Amino acid sequence: MSCEPYFWVLRWRSNNSAVTILASAGITDFGKYNKVYESVEGGAGYMEGFSCVVPAFKFGKALNGNESNLVDVNFEYQIWEYRPKI
C-alpha cells in the first residue's frame, strides 16, 4: 500500500447489463481489505480517493433470471499527482 500525495478517479461499467457489481474502496494492509466507503451496487459508476485507498469490485447479482456467475468490469483510472516544479 502506498500513501503518496496523489488523488485518483475511476469510472467503471459491468460488461453484462444483466449483472450488477458491488463497488467500494478501502485500505489493504497485510493482505486484508478494510472497507472505507460503503458498497454501491449497480451496472456502472465512478469512485474516487486518495492514494492510501484502493478500489474494489465484487459480483453483485444476476438480474431477470440470468444465470451468470461471472462478469467482466471495464474501467478507466486517472491519477492526479502534485508536481511542484510545473
Could you explain the architecture of this structure?
With 86 residues, this protein is mostly beta strands. It has one domain (6-81). The protein contains no helices and 7 strands. It has strands at 6-14, 19-29, 32-35, 40-42, 44-50, 54-62, 73-81. Strands 2, 3, 4 and 6 form a 4-stranded antiparallel sheet that branches. A 3-stranded antiparallel sheet has the order 5-1-7, with no helix packed on it. A hairpin with a 2-residue loop joins strand 2 (19-29) and strand 3. The two termini are 27 Å apart. The mean pLDDT is 88.
Structure summarized in a few sentences:
The chain has 86 residues and is mainly β.
Major sheet size, sense and barrel closure: 4 strands, antiparallel
**Count of domains:** 1
How large is the count of helical segments?
Answer: 0
- Our Rg estimate from Cα atoms comes to 15 Å
Summarize the topology:
Blueprint: E1 6-14, E2 19-29, E3 32-35, E4 40-42, E5 44-50, E6 54-62, E7 73-81
Antiparallel strand pairs: 1-5, 1-7, 2-3, 2-4, 2-6
What labels describe this entry?
mainly beta, elongated, single chain, 4-stranded antiparallel beta sheet, about 90 residues, 7 strands, 3-stranded antiparallel beta sheet
